[in-house]
Amino acid sequence: MVEFLSEINWSPLWISLKTGVAATIFAFFLGVFCARKIMKLKPGARAVLDGILTMPLVLPPTVAGFCLLLLFSLKRPFGSFLLDNFDIKVVQTWTGCVIAASVIAFPLMYRNARAAFEQVDVNLIYAGRTLGMSESRIFWKVIMPAAGPGIASGTVLAFARAIGEYGATSMLAGNILGKTRTVSVAIASETAAGNYDMAGFWVIVIILISFLVVAAINIVSGRGMQTRRWI
Asked: For 169-212, how does the pLDDT look when each residue is reduced to its tens digit (9 = 90+)?
């Protein structure tokens, strides 16, 4: 066992964790922003934009990866523009890992944030306005704390989805050891190579991480909340 562990290249784990954290940060702020803006739209526009923002959740990840590859490919206008003007390359880079994971994780953050905002008591908002609070202060001091459990749940789900993303990541960022190979990509690679022991090890690692993350958020979000047991 010690010999097996000593032979492991731990870079997929570090890349997955870095990617998960970065993608979650992007998904958090963008998801909260979009959820807030969507709430202010008329029903027709809200339905259309909501469908567009939720698309990555229902599409196969490979479809999202294909669209991202077309967008950021150096043979495409936007991809070549980024490289020529900003020296930014997305395809087969860690940046590609983050973008792919962010796109896939974003709908989970957005949907949870919107659902949490819809559950906020409007009387709290009216009370804030009566006290002369600005809209931005009401949002951060009243709405966000009230929607806290839902926001926290969306954040954890986004992180779990980001560290486990495979389809879009493999298409956009590729499978470069020490650079773009995440745990999910490593599992597929080791399985294809017939290294089932190594693939099984990474499966256990990703299961443990997912369990710990979900258990932690259940503990945090459950503090101070009264629950009823079914008897």
From this structure: 999 999 998 999 999 999 999 999 999 999 999 999 999 988 88
Helices 196-222 and 183-192: crossing angle, nearest 10°?
150
CB-based contact 11:177 (threshold 8 Å): yes
Cβ-count burial 174-186 (b if 16+ within 10 Å, e if not): bbeeeebbbbbbb
Tokens of 27: 């998904």
CA distances (Å), origin 69, targets 75, 78, 158, 176, 203:
10, 11, 22, 16, 27
Single-letter amino acid code for the residue at 102: S
Euclidean distance between CA atoms 35 and 80, whole angstroms: 32
The residue type found at 216 is A
